[in-house]
Amino acid sequence: MGNVIVPMTRKEDGMQATIEQIQKAAAQWSIEVTPAGATKIDSFAACLAPGTTVNVTFLPGSDPMDTVAVAERLHNDGMNAVPHLAARSLLDADQLDALLAAYTSRAGVKEVLVIGGGVDNPVGAFADSMQVLETGLIQRHGIQNIGVAGHPEGSPDITQDEIAEALAAKNALAVRDGLNMYIETQFCFEAAIVLEWERAVRAAGNALPIRIGIPGPATIKTLFRFAQISGIGPSMRFISKQARNVAKLMTVQSPHLLLADLAAGMAADSDCLIQHFHFYPFGGFAKTAAYANAVANGDIRLLPKGGFSVIDNAA
Fold it and tell me: What does the H/E/C string look like for 167-221?
């Protein structure tokens, strides 16, 4: 990338993963794209393996048909398109029904991610993701694979008690309707926080598999901006400290220690529900995809102080 690369978190003592553990944890990764970001990508097939899961955002104030169009492009390029359904940005059940019809007919959608959506006041009938799920419309369109949001570091929009209640309700709904439901989390910076959160929600009754949000390699300046927008919790202290060093603002922050520590934690706990990594391509879609591919393929070299470096096969 032409920049200095610094680690995204510090290695925990006793948490040294093997290449095999890292490769296993990084298998079947997914990635995210915005409709605006998709305009910069000529071909998804040029940077992704067939069948790769790609989430398509439905951002506040955007036209949901833009999300449909990107999902259709992904489908035509051989990918598994997973559009977001943002509850507080939907007008009503009729619009939801029409969107689901468009997703399935035009883009072959078999999986969706249902979120609350980052707006303070709902634009229509839905105030939260459970109300969307309980319409039954997703299932009626033949979609059984449903992602829901997870918050290892809390959320600025809802309280911890509300998060716990919502997660319990989603677990109950998944059992009742026989859904293949999973949790997909906000992006995080510190493995210890994520692993502790997973153990806590599991102890509280969560049985849904988990995809952990990973910030792809990007400059500290970029990561700090997205962290502010997303309102992440304890990890924000880590990235804020990095951002205060002006000399480091344009260095690339790599998630290699984060990934290695998560992989070690997953391997050490056979009951851990973390199954996959979901990459947020803040430093660029193609660059993040190449990085994720390298890790999943095991094209990495362990470092003496923990973590790993990606082997540049093009060199």
Answer: HHHHHHHHHHHCCEEEEEEEECCCHHHHHHHHHHHHHCCCCCCEEEEEECCEEHH
Domain ranges within the chain, ordered by starting residue: 5-303
Whole-angstrom CA distances from 288 to 12, 186, 219, 229, 292 are 25, 17, 12, 20, 6
pLDDT per residue as tens digits for the range 305-315: 899 999 986 54
What is the share, in percent, of the chain residues with pLDDT greater than 70? 86
Distance, CA of 206 to CA of 265 (rounded, Å): 18
227 φψ region: left (φ > 0), alpha (ψ -120 to 50), beta (else): alpha
SS3 annotation, 71-135? HHHHHHCCCEEEEEEEHHHCCCHHHHHHHHHHHHHHHCCCEEEEECCCCCCCCCCCCCHHHHHCC
Q: Which two tokens stand for residue 149?
A: 């949001």
Cβ atoms within 10 Å of 182's Cβ, excluding its own: 21
Q: Return d(Cα 153, Cα 140) in angstroms, integer.
A: 33
Taking only the tens place, the pLDDT of each residue in 177-198 is 999 999 999 998 899 999 999 9
**Cα 239 from Cα 219, distance rounded (Å):** 11
Domain 5-303 annotated CATH 3.40.50.300:
no
CA atoms within 13 A on the CB side of 233: 16
CA distance 228 to 130: 26
Strand pairing class (252-254; 274-280): unpaired
Distance CA 227, CA 236 (A): 7
Report in angstroms the alpha-carbon separations of 249 from 78, 225, 232, 258.
37, 11, 19, 19
Q: State how far the Cα of 267 lies from the Cα of 300, in Å rounded to an integer.
A: 18
